[in-house]
Specification:
- The complex is a heterodimer of chains A (about 90) and B (about 200).
- In chain A, about 10% of the residues lie in helices and about 40% in strands.
- Chain A is mainly β and about 90 residues long.
- A four-stranded antiparallel β-sheet of chain A has the order 3-4-5-6, with no helix packed on it.
- Chain A starts with a strand and ends with a strand.
- By secondary structure, chain B is of the alpha+beta class.
- In chain B, helix 2 packs antiparallel against helix 3.
- Chain B is globular, with a radius of gyration of 17 Å.
- The chains are: A mainly beta (about 90), B alpha+beta (about 200).
- The interface between A and B is medium-sized, with 17 and 13 residues.
- The complex binds zinc ion (ZN).
- Zinc ion binds next to loops of chain A.
Chain lengths: ~90, ~200
Amino acid sequence: MLLIPCPFCGDRDETEFAYGGDAGTERPADPGAATDEAWTDYLCFHDNPKGPHREFWFHRDGCRRWLTVERDTHTHELGAVRLSRP
Amino acid sequence: MADGATEARRSALAGLDLGSRAGGAGGVLLGEGPPRESFALRGPADDPAFARAVETGLGAGLPQQPGAVAEIGADALLIRLGPDEWRLTAPLSDDGRIAARLASALAGGRGALVNVSSATTVIAVSGAHAADLLATGTGIDLDPAAFPPGRAARTRIGNAQALVHRKAEDAFELHVPRSYARSFWDWLEARGREFDAAVAL
Ligand SMILES: [Zn+2]
């Protein structure tokens, strides 16, 4: 099990969190002007690397904040963890 | 709450008939806690005006550390749960007076207070092995050095989310979602067998 160091709550078990997927995508800045391709890319296509990955985790049973977590998908080693929106 | 006056308060654990099973001594005592009023307080922690409003309304400052608890008069508490979230909880006998004072102090400024009393059931776990029992189902460190009396945390215990308040070294009050109360109670009793758990009078 992962032990995720929440910046607010401290070390907490993975079971307290909900996985939120790839944090590397960026929502089109001007939604009305974005092309279908840009939306499709944002919504549907995500990197699925074996190795370092930046991803969202929701601390559902703790501070109820979204975290941005660096995790190696191969070794499960965790890097920086921060509140997604401070 | 249009029909509030005609609705009888009914515990989520009423069907268990705990009163008839109470008694005996064990390493852990399980019981339904006294019902509480609870309010979700949200506001900007770094806004001095918000902090002043809370202090005006409650006569106590905002607790700063995660899980820190400020005591407000007789058995009312303000607990820090998140970067912009606190929980105000008071005995039923307070009849909403503390929350009303806070609401009027917050009026016109930033901050929101919402009554969430019906969302949770309060369960009391006490006794020499209370921490041992809870530790079988949570990842947080319940050693008194790390989680001393007077502290609180929202975490996961067994099958439910729980707001845990350590009232004394061997006494915990757990606020669990009402819809989980029955199954959480069953979990407590099942884990409690190891510690000769008994139902509190
Ligand atoms: Zn957290």
